[in-house]
Amino acid sequence: MPAATSRHEHDKERTVEIVELAPDGLGFGEGTISTQTQLKNPEVSGLTPEVLHVGAEIIKSGKPFTEVDPDANDDGCGDGRPTGVIYRFVEGIKKTFKKSRRRAKVFGGGLIAAASMYRTAIGGNVHPDETVLGDREMVAGMLDKAGIGYGGHTDNHAHDEISGCGAVDKYPLITANALAFRTEITGVLRTVYGEDFSEREGAINQVFASYDNQVTNSETYFSDAAGSKTRDLLERHGSVIKELNDDHLEDFIVINDIEGTTFDQRAFNDELKSRGVTGTAQAFVVDAWRGRMYADFVADIAEQKGMDRDLAYQMAEADFWVRTLAVSGTLTKGDLPVFLRRYQA
Q1: 0.70 cut: is pTM over it?
Q2: 242 near 153, Cβ under 8 Å?
């Protein structure tokens, strides 16, 4: 009898494709990060039509995609800026590191994504004594117990209550913007889910209902949403935190759906240089497979609580996509070309 073939071995046999999901951007957004604005100010941004063209070619070539480091079971944010300092607190002592691990990326980091999923799929309507930081503290404990690492970032501009991560600092606004951009986000989800959209539509609507409830109770629920408080939480839990440098110069959004891999933003920069391009380009990165991992985690908890696991999973996964798209709509002008790396059907 032949030996059984593992899922990983099956995946190796499948064909990977990289498609331009939205060549001209998602088409909605109120943020300041803009490819077109950077093209109009090349002396500041370093972005020219040549850099944009070559950058797109490099993404489609697949060269910057790489395996996640075996010793990096945590994740970070998809911010495209270069890292200056890497640190974590061990027994109250701050330790710095010289090497940056290749780890999975989701907007805000895994704890932010998982806590949002938990509130939507399990927590339900907000009670007067419940807050977003309380949700994150609770979910952090669950992730710690499960041995799932989660990281984050700050930057060299962070001050006062600002953490330096827009997905964290603007969390209340992002939640509200999910509702403001509901029509546009739903349109993107029709593409994301394809023929499964009608089956998932009920879960998607429940995500929007959850966000509406959070906004309605924003005075209490978001009372401790200051980014610095979440950064302090990450430090207390020993998370690896990267301090990023300078201003946002992202020109692309890369969604990667090949499990165990990510887009190496520094390798992307190196490839640009190797092609003799003068200028710079950065990319936001979202590893969709990592989001599904957190959706599975939340669904397992829901099942333990006697809830419908399948529905909880659908709501958690939909929450991941809705919040990811709302982050894009809050931080960008919606004109960053979007690429998707996936297995061919």
Answers
A1: yes
A2: yes
